[in-house]
Write a structure and sequence with these properties.
single chain; 163 residues; alpha+beta; 5-stranded antiparallel beta sheet; 3-stranded antiparallel beta sheet; 8 strands; 35% helix
Amino acid sequence: MLLPLLSRRRWVSGFSLTEITVALGAISFAILPLIGMLSGGLTLFGETIDQSVSRQIVQRIASDAQQADFGNLTASGNTTARWFDAEGLEVSATDPMRSYEARLQITRPATVPGEGGTPGPEAGTSSVEDLARIAILISFRPAGAAAIPERTITQFTYVTRKE
């Protein structure tokens, strides 16, 4: 009578070590590309934010230049810097929250393509006394970052003398 009791096997439900190893391998094989795409997506997201804030900064600087007295614009060749935080609001150069540096390069008189005005330094261009060209170079440069910016966006705007 003891024999039938000892020969019986008790079945325990569950997965074997081999099955678990194969399942984990399949899951990791599917998840790793997703993690790689997440990294690229975050990089693209950061660059998009930088471009959006940079465009807001350019708009503000261009608006300030349009409203300024033409005679008060900096003489040709001078470069000035303005600092902005992560939201595009202007801050001081010593503010620890600064994230963007905007460098302005003003050229007066501006050289433009065309026939009118005084001949410019390049063939087919003319120099216009009542026009200033402002190059706005915006660099993502958080406080305490290295001297060389990682990303720089350059925009140009023109300001005319108001009568």
